[in-house]
Amino acid sequence: QVFKLEDYKPSEFLIPETKLTFNLHPTKTLVQAELTIRTRSGQPPNAALVLDGDELVLRSLAINGKVLDAASYTATPDRLTINELPQADTFTLSIETEVAPEHNKALSGLYRSSGNYTTQCEAEGFRRITYFLDRPDVLSVYTVRLEADSKEAPLLLSNGNLVERGPVESGALDSGRHFAVWHDPFPKPSYLFALVGGDLGSIKDSFTTASGREVELGIYVEHGKEERAAYAMAALKRSMRWDEEVFGREYDLDVFNIVAVSDFNMGAMENKGLNIFNDKYVLADEATASDADYAGIEAVIAHEYFHNWTGNRITCRDWFQLCLKEGLTVFRDHEFSADQRSRAVKRIAEVRGLRAQQFPEDQGPLAHPVRPRRYREINNFYTSTVYEKGSEVVRMIRTILGAEDFRRGMDLYFERHDGDAATIEDFLRVFEEVSGRDLSQFALWYHQAGTPSVQVAMRHDADKREVTLHLEQALAPTPSESRKRLMHIPLQFGLVGQDGRDIAVKAAGEGVEGDVIHLRKRHQTIRFTDVPERPVLSINRGFSAPIMLAMEQTAEDRMFLARHDSDLFARWQALTTLYTQALTQAYRTIRGGSTPEFAPALLALVGDTARNEALEPAYRALALSLPGEGDIAREIGQTIDPDAILAARNALVLAIAAANADDFAKIYEAMAASGPFSPDAADAGRRSLRNVLLDYLSAPAGDVKRAASRYESATNMTDRAAALAVLAHRQSGSPETVAALADFESRFRPEPLVIDKWFQIQATVPGTATVNTVRELMRHSGFSIDNPNRVRSLVGTFAAANQTAFHAADGSGYKLFADAVLEVERRNPQVAARIATAFRSWRSLEPGRQDKARQALVAISQHRDLSSDLRDIVERTLA
Ligand code: ARG
Ligand code: ZN
Fold first, then answer.
1. Could you read off the pLDDT of 360-379 as tens digits, one per residue?
2. ipTM reported for the complex, 2 dp
3. pTM for the predicted model, two decimal places
4. I want to staple 96 with a disulfide (CB 3.0 to 4.6 A). Which of 60, 84, 369, 684 is the partner?
5. Smallest Cα–Cα separation from 549: which of 598, 601, 624, 489?
6. Contacts of 599 (CB under 8 A, 6+ apart)
7. Is 266 in the pocket of ligand 1 (CB under 6 A)?
8. How remote is the CA of residue 55 from the centroid of ligand 1, in Å?
């Protein structure tokens, strides 16, 4: 079945009130739903009531307290149709269903994780709990009564505020069961419903909102791990304050709870007042979490908290509008992290991620608009296009409007749409209204898939003292649209003078506003007058638009920008472009059977950047990080040979290391830690620079000592895991590497989240031998095909991040992966479909690999009883 945006119709029936009673039991949980149903028209119903279900077992059904006779309804596992309804605009529908949380391995709906009851309802999991109008535009006030065994589940949580709790009386006897009643006063869609029942430890804190509301904060984790939740709690409080200060948004309930579970399909979930998290995004201490983990926790805690306004108070009309809450909330969490850490470093990391994930999606068979118009399986649209590109689109709105009008637009959005299930049109309208601008061309960013490319050339005429910019935009066809319209692309820019400073520019004609060029036509020419000396063009500063930029620019000019551009993002970009050019050139040389060489000026520039103490260490670390194999592949485009890419990249690593060995060794020593561990951005930056240097210093064959000693002396997970990765990736098979891998495993055996790192590091060892390693690790006692984190770390990482092994020329990587995907699929279709997207760039490979990849995809597609999730991905990938 294909769902289409244009088919949207408001529901004939509303559910203003929902009362739920759960009798929690591992294999036989009874769910009683008492729904107040009201017709939208205010007239008696003139059609049947059709409710969504998914694998449901109906136990009983009544309307206004009267049991329905069998002739008046039909119930299947995925639908309840009631044909005979009262002749009234309002009535009460009572439904009893039975579910088995213990057997729910799809981790959607009500399931058990480490013995605890938990739920995941977005997007369509609520219908696996009871029959309902399971769509985001049906908002209801929920009252939830939970009953459970007091020993098995002393903790009973749901959305909103706790109303009542106590033992369940059964005559004079102690029933051994207890109950809790929760009430959430805010009407919400079913996807935001949540409950938790179990035995967990907790940490508590409180927060006073700007207007003086006392909020009780709780984070619930596995017993014994309470201390590891402290960083998440601090991040939560910082998020709450930041949203007040930057967006004027206050929290609105008396409690805010977060529960960490170890079996979770995604990162986390913003259920009203009861966020449920993958424990990977809650638990951290220096011994078990890396700096990247800390940053991830901060970002995800903030993201889910920010959803309280962008997602919960204002939700989505339908799932086509998913980016309305996700793109906007990612933008908000990006801004939060930028404010908490280094803005430039954060921006570079975002763009690296966007290019590594979203660009290949947007340029391959799975491309779709930020706001899709059709889907077969909505779970397959929780993509980096909807999230990350969706965030970039919001960022562009701010660039076009300026910070002030953007904030006024957001204020209007909150004021006008509080309590609504809104659309992208509603969102764009507030910005048009406050700014008086026409955003209709800009709106194409939501409607057209694909990464636009922009070509730029600059000419300087010394006699006329004029600079002319020629810009041209293009957008290739994608599966969603074969013909594209011209986009409105905001490009932040500067003309950099010989002294390294931006020159003040005077533009003749339209298209420039302050430091932003508005590219709206296919070709656009812009003249700047009164420029006596030839400047160097810096464009798409801050990555103001998510495009591919092709600029006619000499290596000398790029080196100049890499040293002097006042925009730190653009400075990093100039260096990265130089790397990319050197790497693609080396790739061709290697394919031609020769040995690549690299420009000494580039190698020197890298050394100068590493030594430049005016730049913070975290920034220098990013500047020293070469484009990944996937980035290089995208640059080459067609008939990719992953082995040659790896060889080219390694050659450049070695050349940089050889040219700068002494300096790198000195900086490596200078970056050594002093004082106690802190996860803050400054210390994390020093560690990251040090670890990047360790990788260079350990690149020459046999240079294993430094990394081995780093591994042994490490006092935190960042350094330990980095040293292990360097050993495994640079000195694979050495006795030191073998010993370190064994040590890591025995040290962290009881820590699944740490063992995930061990899986990841081994799954990304370059070369075809890793196919066997992964096959063996799938039999390791720490691996579990049922656990999404384990599957992603080992199988997912192998396919998504190991170009030379996954794309092994003999097809063995594809075969292993396809088998694993099918095995995961039988239990958890969502996770299987997600990791299967690793095939998306198969058409850009050289013919031999292409053929093998196609065979693997066809083998999956021919499997019997394929889930709609996996079928959707595989068929679109093959199309
Ligand atoms: N709304 C969640 C977030 O962005 C993601 C939940 C998606 N879950 C799913 N099964 N598709 O934080
Ligand atoms: Zn989200």
1. 999 999 999 999 999 999 99
2. 0.98
3. 0.99
4. 60
5. 489
6. 555, 582
7. yes
8. 21
